Amino acid sequence: MIRINGPHFIDDQGRQLMLRGVNLSGSAKVPYTPDGATHIFEGFFDHRQVSFVGRPFPLEEADEHFRRLRSWGLTFLRFLTTWEAVEHAGPGKYDEEYLDYLYKVVKKAGEYGITLFIDPHEDVWSRFSGGDGAPGWTFEAAGMDITGFKATGAAIVHQTLGDPFPRMIWASNNSKLAAATMWTLFFAGKDFAPQCKVDGKSIQDYLQSHYIAAMRQVAHRLKEFDHVIGYDTLNEPSTGYIGITDFNAPPGREMIGPTPTVLQSMALGDGISQPVQYWKRDMLGGINRQQVDLTNQEGRRAWLEGKACIWRQHGVWDVDANGKPVVLKPDYFSSVNGKKVDFVQDYLLPFWNRYAGEIRKEKKDAMIFVEGAPGEGIPTIGEADLTNIVFAGHWYDGITLFFKRFIPFMGMDFFKVIPLIGVNKIKKSFVAQMAHFRTLADEKLRGAPVVIGEFGIPYDLNGAKAYRNGNFTDQINAMARSMAPMEANLLNFTIWDYTPDNTNERGDKWNGEDLSIFSRDQQKDAQDINSGGRALEAVLRPYPMATAGSPTHIAFDHHSGRFEFTYTHDPKISAATIVYVPNFQYPNGYQAVVSDGEYKTDTGSQRLEYRHSSSQAEHTITITRK
């Protein structure tokens, strides 16, 4: 049983745990039946007639994948589900077959000694606004027409745009009409769309209550399992329009491809054509305007027949005597009753509290995993707010992710969004960036534990050259560059991702992403547990699974195989320290040198068991290849 003790996870014997694992899985964002891979348009708009049974894998494959993950020492899962998977058929219509399937998969994970937390995954609101998560009927509740999003520029969607789908353009949807409207309604509909009601409820209460009720269905099904330690609140929430002060400026962080301003988005959605700017990013962080195109010349609307634009209805904007869109309330989204709004404190934190309260009606001791909106930080929690929480923020090696190239001397500061030049500067900055997560948890979340909920690299680097020549050197080095700062900061993490049905051609089946550490297309020998793994030289690393005290130093060099681990012991703990030592890294065995005490090894379970002496406070284990 895993418990929280201050900033750490501990087991029943008081040992400090280091949790390492993966997100399972990338393709869980899309339906299994019919195949919801984002390059397939056929049947896309039939959003009520889908099934997620088979995500993350068919039940008959469960043993294979859980056996592999256990062998790889990745025994802690961020297990993906979606609101759509549970409630796609309509409000209050839960997919019982999916919930039964989910129960069986999660039960099987426990049989392999795998611990997990549930992640209700959501990117840019929904599949129908270019991401995943929310059911299609949520747009209908707001009066939006998902078939009009392409023509009006309300969203850039792989299924309707077709191939090639520009890399990472999906994230720009947070600033476009469809997703921005839905996020605003979800978090702050009472304040910003008071006239919008569904079944007598404010749109905010309607959406939040359905989302939370769907996740309660999941929690209810899984409440008997001790190895399900908690629930994430919401993957990468967005501010929508909340807090904007300039309706005529393009969004800074999301300027890529066609980038209408807020006013243009609203006008386009109401059938008024607009000259939209196209932007392109370069590796040094520059943003360059490429062209201006007149969008929505046919006058399509993003709203259902007979439904008004919510924002025009509320007097935010209108057209002047010449038919030109104009802003009528420039401070509409930035203040309420004369008070400046703060998204994280005014809207995100109350949602966290509401969500936690409802989930804990099913499992009172559930840990609640929280994360902020990208670029917006996290709220400061008070004494009256939720407890037993875990900070599960995300981090990526930005240039490698965005451009799908690994350049050893180029990096990006994830928080400041500035380029880094020089190998040593990158290394130092990456360590500092990861330390920032611990600082945020201490300052904002009363010292909660930290799990990096997502990090990873695209494996189709350099035009997917490795799939043709078999040389994964860049992938190995890129992944090692991301792993090292995790170790330097003694962080828990779940890698993005492990996708059982990943292919070289279509990656993780979602928006052209290809970050899975496993692929059938790399699997040459089904009898070899490691076959199919990508960049395992960097991914499979020794680490202390359970420490009879507090780790102070961890380092691993994947080139030499040298592993160093230092900790100070807790005299109240009598149990041994357990270190995972992957056979993959030590095919000819290894030598262990300890500062004191004694140890024994078990290559079958890939464990080293160490019992320190009481003659000194600090202890060191060093492992090298034979």
Contiguous runs where pLDDT drops below 50 for at least 5 residues: none
Mean pLDDT: 96
Across the major sheet, the strand order is 18-17-9-6-5-4-22-21
Number of DSSP E strands: 30
Main β-sheet description? 8 strands, parallel
* Strand content range: 15-25%
Q: What would you call the shape? A: globular
Q: What's the N-to-C terminus distance?
A: 36 Å
User: What does the radius of gyration come to?
Assistant: 25 Å
- The helical percent reads 25-40%
Number of DSSP helical runs: 17
Classify the secondary structure makeup into a structural class: alpha+beta
Entry summary:
The protein is α+β, with helices and mostly antiparallel strands and 626 residues long. It contains 17 helices and 30 strands.
From the structure above, extract its key features:
626 residues; alpha+beta; 7-stranded antiparallel sheet
